[in-house]
Amino acid sequence: DAGVTQSPTHLIKTRGQHVTLRCSPISGHKSVSWYQQVLGQGPQFIFQYYEKEERGRGNFPDRFSARQFPNYSSELNVNALLLGDSALYLCASSLGEGYTDTQYFGPGTRLTVL
Amino acid sequence: SQQGEEDPQALSIQEGENATMNCSYKTSINNLQWYRQNSGRGLVHLILIRSNEREKHSGRLRVTLDTSKKSSSLLITASRAADTASYFCATDLDSNYQLIWGAGTKLIIKP
Q1: Please, is B13 exposed, middle or buried when counting C-beta atoms within 10 Å of its C-beta (0-12, 13-18, 19+)?
Q2: Interface contact flag, B98 A56, Cβ < 8 Å
């Protein structure tokens, strides 16, 4: 079975631009979570979606938004990029909506903002 | 803010030795999970321990949880070069859907 996939693998943008990151969960998984991981730190929770509804939001500005589609894939959008947005963006899927469910991570999208 | 804090920040041992990493957290939890990350890529789930459990095993991994001390430990026995990675603990907040992560322990296994 295919694992969680993310695209693109790498991305270079300039300040002020907009970016869209994509994630396809494991087949049958209905929950998708997004994390930001700055080099040398642990992941920081951004969003969780379950059955196309936002179930949780971390401490990120409104420049960050996301959505989940009927096929449970998800997009993370970041507007007005800042240098500090440079990070590895990780997507994780799980079977259920709860935080007790094991999360399966994709390989991430490395975003560099110049 | 980060809920979990791993200790030590970095650990270097010889292949075959045991590696122990610790995680402390601040608030009550429902469960605690350990993940491994190789070379800054995706995280791999290792083990989940619930707040009513004290110890759990999975292959060469042993995890303990002490809710009175708000701490957990991950023991990797008979380490191998392939165990070289960063290890993170993640905890949930009782009333939230998010996992809170520590900064990780970087483990290096020397051949």
Answers
A1: middle
A2: yes
